[in-house]
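Hi! If you just cloned this repository, the fastest way to understand the data is to look at a raw example. We've pasted two of them here, unedited. The first protein comes first, obviously.
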Amino acid sequence: APADRERAIARALEAGVNYFDTAAQYGDGQSEKNLGLALKKLKPANAVVATKVRLKPAEFARIADAVTRSLDASLARLQMERVDIFHLHNEITDAGGGETLSARQVLQEVAPAFERLRQAGKIGHLGLTAIGDTVALKEAVDAGAFASAQVVCNMLNPSAAQPLPANYPA
């Protein structure tokens, strides 16, 4: 219920939480709508909002257009003119293929599209969700185009923080 969402977000803000991460894929856009409505009502001064784009293979031929369309739709759902961080949510691999993007595509097509949106004032920082092949991710990160990388590290997959046993199930 809307009141429950607002109460949860208000409580998070009171507790010092100010980073809110969402994506168009979360609930088919409903997460962005819910967050946008709550933040619009609460009007927190220090909220940092991030959302993501996951490109489909059919969009790979026109990456800049697809990125722009996705961000504009996210901003409309969030009822915001800008997000603080916009993350690429595709896996990054050396060669690309399937639903993955190659490091070359990320650096030559995605990063410039994101940068144009940053210059237009629609995003504050460029980001990526650090999923994919380690070498390709390192190439994308080392290029310096992205200010944020969401690294998978949790109880089920602590591989970013410590070596895992050979037969680890995650």
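Ok, and the second one:
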Amino acid sequence: RLWAQLHFVSQDALKSVDAYEQLWQFATQDADPSAFEPLREPIQRKAAEFRQTMLDAQDKHVASVLEFAQRAYRQPLSDGQRQTLLSLYKNLIANETPHEDAIGLMVARVLVSPEFLYRIERPAEGTDKPANITDLELANRLSYFLWASMPDKTLMDLAQSNKLSDPVTLRAQVQRMLKDPKAQQMAVEFGTMWLHIRDLDVLDEKSETHFPEFALIRSDLYKEAIYLFTDALANDRSVLDLLSGDYTFLNGRLANYYGIPDVGPADASEPWRKVDGVRKYGRGGILTLGATLAKQSGASRTSPILRGNWLCEVVLGEKLPKPPKNVPVLAELPPEGITERELTERHSSDPACSKCHQRIDPYGYALENYDAIGRFRTHDASGKAINTTTQLPTGQKIENFDDLRNYLEVHRKEDFVRQFNRKLLGYALGRSVQLSDEPILSEILQQQRAGGWSIQETICQIVLSKPFRQIRGKDFQDEALQQ
């Protein structure tokens, strides 16, 4: 079969005719071309047979484009869609367009159609009330939520038989899909966006003078975050593991970078593996990922302000006011004799800024043991000991990152989980979370308390929720557009 495909694609039978004629003409110049004459008939016969094979294949090509269109549209072709593509092909052939070009234009027509470019969902006519989406629409929502890609055959078969919307079936499909390698795309599309580290593997904002090693390690820092989140999905970890789990994913190179022994050769970029017991090395959870620490830092120094703001808003979901206008920009490097923390404290003492900085800076100070590219340190570049002692807005004193992590685990875990749920729900729905979604978020949080904070159960609750399985009525949408 592979040989047949090679002959078909290369069209060697037709090219052999031209090659034979060139050889024959060349031989007439200074030799007897009759030696080549016995080859003429077999070559011509094979060329004629191949032309017929090409004609016989034309209908198969058209049928293949229709099958491709069905996959591209992620639903069975309607009679109108099928007829549109067939009419295009017939009109092209009637206008003497070569068959191969006509097939190419059919494919192009599929790829510019709204059915391919958009996930089209049609609301019910004559009502402004929400209604359940079809099973095919549900298959698309589910697949793009968990895989960031089109549904596979299993999902499509269930959808076409109208079995997917059954809650038991839907839950089983969520569990199946999260164990599939394609779920890593959810770690990329949701996880890295949630943590604000998307494309860290190509980040070129770090000073090469101060951190020449960052270019080599940045892709490993990025992969660590992706593997951590992928594992949480596939193995149904607790949501709280993302905050403070005592494990991470390392290869030899990243383990050496972090100072964690017995993982592998220091220059090995593969293989990756789960490494337990990393909290004693200052790792474990999203707060100590080199990716998040590096992204929330400057080009040449750490930034307690960036890290504190990220922890408040992204991790805990606090709403902070926008900074006042004309706030002076901090120097990229502290003046000689001044630590990075002291530079921040001078800036934060401004009365116009102090109120917000009292909320965010303590979190950043507790992370000062990590440099601007995520390495653990006890002294800064000038040799001064790092000071991580601080006091949270609640009045609680913090000596180091371990104290901060313990505080978050004990006093802010539900804030963290609720923020994670909010971001995940918004990603699943493809829109910002609204006030009307608050009951759903409260219900999900209640289920998590009872179910051990399971990530898979969180996703199941979102998939089974009304916002995920319903669409507003057409009258409501028309009214919204008019407004």
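That's it. A detail worth noticing about the second one: The longest strand covers residues 247-250.
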